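retry 2 of 3: previous attempt timed out while embedding zinc ion. Reduced batch size to 1 and resubmitted. Inputs unchanged:
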Amino acid sequence: MTTISNFKGISAKEKVKFQEQYDLWMCNRTQDEIELYDLIIEYDEKLFKDFTFQRESLITPFLKGKTKVNGKWVTFYENPHEAIESITDSLYRFLVADLEDAEGLVKHPTRTMTIPLHNLGRKDVILHEMIHIYEDVLHPMYKEILQHCLYVRLSKKIPDLDTHILERCNLAILHENAIDGGYHGPLFHLKSLDLDCRCRFNLGTVFGGKRIEEQG
Ligand SMILES: [Zn+2]
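retry 2 succeeded.
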């Protein structure tokens, strides 16, 4: 079951408004936006199973529970009610348009991701912006679990993981980046490194270059 009850700072009235905007956009997407949407669905299904709390992801141990039935212990899987099943449930619209001084842009107040046409082939840029959307819509409890699971997985793959995190996520850098272009904390950094590994990018690619994001 999908619920969006935990969307940060959004009233029921705003949800209706965003749903209407999303439905209207879906009916009027340009060919480029259809292409972008298809790419996002593809990346979402392949690379964000953890962020949608699917059973076959690194999050599985946190879904597993045991209960006694007729005196015997039986395994069951908790339904993650407060997660979303797909990034498309976020009611974000995925736009293709020119941007000044940015490779990609997520605006939380308007629930839009914008990618310039010349960056449609930049998987790293699109993945970067997708992390921002998930960080916006996921319940804090889920984000803590994800951060733990990603850290455990990546610490086996990246020997100097702590240095990577410290270099990107100490408070001086976080404050500076927040002024320039949005919040990129430990969870963001861990997921970007996870995507680097799985896409065979150099470490730091998804974290990337110059982007701006408005925080909602
Ligand atoms: Zn960013």
